Amino acid sequence: MGGVIISEPEDGSPIEDLPWVVVFQSLDDAWDSFTCGPYERDHAIALAEAVAVEEDDVLAAVEPLLPALEPADILADIAELREAHEEEDEDEDETDEAEESEEDDEESEESEEDGDEELEITDIEVPDADEVREGMARVVNRLLADA
Fold this sequence. Notes:
Layout: E1 3-6, E2 20-26, E3 34-39, H1 41-54, E4 58-64, H2 71-90, H3 94-114, H4 129-146
Parallel strand pairs: 1-4
Antiparallel strand pairs: 2-3, 2-4
Region (Disordered): 77-133
């Protein structure tokens, strides 16, 4: 039997009503991962569990499909996840935090010595929110046409 990881939003969270996807991956890296969906949450969970029961080397992750319309939306999600991760780190033992801090300092010093340059996003054409919505509509229409 494989495994299933299910994202559990808080009760009443608007995330519950979003479309959900299932990311299937090999536990032993025998094949490339892929994503299926969008589904309603209950359907995504049922499909993930059914596949995991049949295959020993499958890990299925059930996650919400967030409708990010602009890079700022994605950056806000990343910032929120970083903040949550930092809060978890604060709850760890002080000894573990001290060791992690020392490692981070060493890595930071190494990257400064390497002269890493920041990438600029000047050459990337980012679609505006309306263009993204139109693209999402085209994808949904293709999904429905194939059904």
